[in-house]
Design brief:
heterodimer, A: 258 residues, mainly alpha, B: 155 residues, alpha/beta, 8-stranded mixed beta sheet, 2 helices, elongated
């Protein structure tokens, strides 16, 4: 009986958390966009996007380089090293670009968002805003949400582009794949709508989910040091799981059925 | 309120994203160079289409002029009907043209090779909805091996 009650309680907790998360989201998204919030959003794009740029570029470069190296050793056995370009480009654009960017983004920017908002809550800055009749959802949460949703697709595209250049560096400049075939076979294989746009849509969805989880976990955290540290951990874990799970669903919808 | 440095960095970030998009658009992806814009449809009946797929390319001497739009089975004589959408830019092929299913390389994907026919007086050009009469089916490797073994046995 006790176990049953426990199960029921945890289910109810989950659902009420989901409800609170929806309220936070609605409060942030549905609030009338204010002109004076645009500078706040730009500042958050700096924090969330620009400061993630270095990790995105470096990891994109290395992932592209590693893929070219691994792909080359396999493809060269079949004399198909000309297909290195499309292999690198397709895997980056369809999967690795959006997914790895989302995972890095959750670790780099999501955790920071959670900690920042959690600490604001712990030091009662959010309640003081409310006492001054400033809606914290509108003033604090909305700019961060939009900054995340705007920044991450851009980061994902930069990631893919840098990765393709990294693949070019290893494949063409070091291993001697013909530059012409690297680019031309890539060009004839990669479709703008099918591959690039679908990857872009994926990264928008991931951006939304990751930022939402990060913001809600901060907003809903228990305002103690342990609470904030737990919330930060949960942000990274939950958003990584959500990204990987959603990625399968989106891939099945986009590329699964011809 | 926001410092100039922040603004410059965000501007740089956006510029970088635009540059990356442009690179993907111009260097990496084919923006469906053929298949977008004005096209017209032709039909061709084959005995066997082998591994031909929707979106396979249609080529004249290696130049892509269109794509396979759809592949269906004729319900009456049970032969595959392939619908080709050809770029309107190339709309002067004579009726005597022929199509065959070819393979790029030994293991490559299959495409439709389009042979423009001769054009003399009295022969019209192919237009929207026409059937191409002269078709050659795909070579199926198993059939070839079978024929080879059969002909060796009979010797």
């Amino acid at each position: 009986m006790e176990a049953l009650a426990k199960l029921g309680r945890s289910t109810l907790d989950k659902f009420s958390a989901l409800g609170r998360a929806t309220f936070v989201l609605l409060g942030a998204v549905m609030s009338v966009p204010q002109l004076k919030n645009i500078p706040l959003t730009i500042k958050q794009i700096y924090v969330v996007g620009v400061q993630s740029l270095s990790i995105i570029i470096v990891s994109g470069l290395f992932i592209g380089m590693v893929m070219a190296l691994q792909g080359y050793t396999i493809l060269v056995d079949y004399g198909a090293e000309g297909s290195l370009g499309p292999m690198v480009a397709l895997s980056l654009l369809r999967e690795l670009g959006p997914v790895v960017t989302a995972l890095l983004f959750a670790g780099r920017a999501g955790s920071a968002l959670t900690a920042e908002i959690g600490l604001m809550k712990a030091t009662e800055q959010l309640s003081s805003l409310e006492m001054m009749a400033v809606d914290p959802l509108r003033r604090i949460v909305a700019p961060r949400l939009w900054a995340g949703v705007i920044s991450m697709p851009m980061l994902a595209i930069i990631f893919s582009a840098v990765g393709i250049l990294g693949g070019h560096l290893v494949g063409v400049d070091w291993l001697g794949v013909d530059a012409g075939s690297y680019w031309s076979i890539m060009q004839s294989t990669v479709e703008w709508n099918e591959d690039v746009l679908n990857g872009f849509i994926k990264s928008i969805v991931f951006a939304f989910v990751v930022t939402w989880i990060a913001i809600f976990k901060g907003y809903d955290s228990i305002p103690t040091s342990e609470g904030i540290s737990a919330a930060t951990t949960q942000t990274v874990v939950y958003s990584s799981l959500a990204v990987l799970g959603l990625d399968f669903v989106l891939t099945a919808i986009m590329f699964g059925i011809e | 309120m926001i410092s100039r440095k922040t603004e410059i960095w965000v501007g740089l970030f956006v510029a970088l994203a635009i540059a990356a998009t442009l690179m993907l658009a111009l260097n990496v992806a084919s923006k469906g160079s053929v298949g977008q814009g004005e096209t017209y449809s032709l039909f061709a009946k084959f005995d066997n289409i082998g591994g031909l797929k929707v979106r396979s390319s249609v080529k004249v001497g290696g130049v892509t002029i269109g794509r396979v739009e759809s592949i269906e089975l004729d319900p009456e004589d049970f032969t595959p009907v392939v619908k080709l959408s050809i770029s309107q830019q190339y709309n002067l092929f004579p009726e005597t043209s022929s199509v065959s299913i070819l393979t790029s390389g030994l293991l490559g994907e299959q495409y439709i090779g389009f042979q423009p026919g001769f054009s003399i007086d009295g022969i019209e050009n192919l237009k929207e909805g026409d059937y191409i009469a002269d078709t050659k089916s795909a070579l199926v490797l198993e059939d070839l091996i079978g024929q080879f073994l059969f002909s060796r046995d009979s010797e």
